What does this fold into?
Amino acid sequence: VIRLAGFLAAVLAVGAGCAPRPEAEADAPALQEYPIGGDFVLTGPGGEPWSLEQARGKVVLLFFGYTLCPDFCPMTLSKLVQVDQALGDADDGKLLTVFVSLDPERDSPEGIAEYLSYYALEAVGLTGSREEIDAVVASYGGSYSLDEVDSAMRYLVTHSTYVYLIDGDGRVRHLYGSLDDAAAIAAGVRQLLAAGE
Amino acid sequence: LLPLLAAACGRPPPPGGDRHPEPAARGAELFRSHGCIACHGPEGHGDGLLAGSLDPKPRDLRDPSSYRQGHTAEQISRTIGMGLLGPKVSPMPSYPHLTRADKDALAAWVVTLQASQPAVARVRSGWVRAAPPGARVTAAYFALENPGEAELVLESAEAEGFDSVEIHETLEQDGVARMRPLNRLVIPAGGARELAPGGAHLMLIGPHQPVQDGERRRLTLRFAGGTELAVELPVRQRPETDS
It folds into this structure.
């Protein structure tokens, strides 16, 4: 169990305090550089190692989830499809969704790939050993826990809901919460694409 | 059915002799011949031809909790004779000219409507989330309205084409989503409960077939006390309002 939500909240609070929101574009987030995240290697499509470095030059929207999640994860993926639609052709080949599974015992690379293929997105699904996943979650200031419950699912995963906006250099530039809509996320992506970052 | 009705009426045949052995059947005839159906509808669902022009509208007689002056045969018989009284004006007139036997026969008929199918709850704007191939779970969402005067407790559900169904709730706090099973979902009397993305939902586990956009899926909701509600929901990728 990783508990870094407090740290993340502090980072967000500091970030919000020192960077005034630009007034230029409505919906445009105040992009900045967060001292979290960075490159990592996990297991990607075909069971091959996948490194965030492979996404250099692309804007990445990363989030943590699991495929046995009936509510939140499909909600987030549907929202990201809307982001892609809102951007039209502007993001073709330049925007990548990265889904990091927090449930490696039940999510195989093939299973995640099949799951993601359903959504009209350029997306990569990642898994790994529990230790590898924990390290990535920790470096992104996320949190999750496996909760045993009275359910046919045996356990459920409680997890961070942030979508991380990562620029072409692999830096975290913004965090979107579940209340941020597709338009807000699209505005951030558009800003990075325009800056060529 | 007859002994049951007699028990429900809880009274001996009226003096003067009711020669009809089946008061409920005669009540059904009277219900039509005296024009009750104009407002109450042929089956007492509150959907007669004139229902739309009335305020308040006739209640659904299947729902015992909707009766303003009681739903027992005796109370209904009295209401037919006196009309609906009380602080709130009602278009329900009095029928003082009816004989006691006729009023009781009508009441017996109306009681059989209650037994037929109580309107326990209404489902509004529901949908099932389309799921990727190979997905092992998905969710159903809807608003449950409780028009009655007693709270309703959703205890379990079944869905055609799924292994099982559980009632779950997503709680999000400080950027962390937690899901937890709920043993029951209470819908307060006269209230509603919204099952929506990011909140309470029915978790549909183990689909036998892919759950695809444009399909319809049938669910059975089971409430405390043994009542059931069958619903058919469209499958969608996302909420209808969310384009």
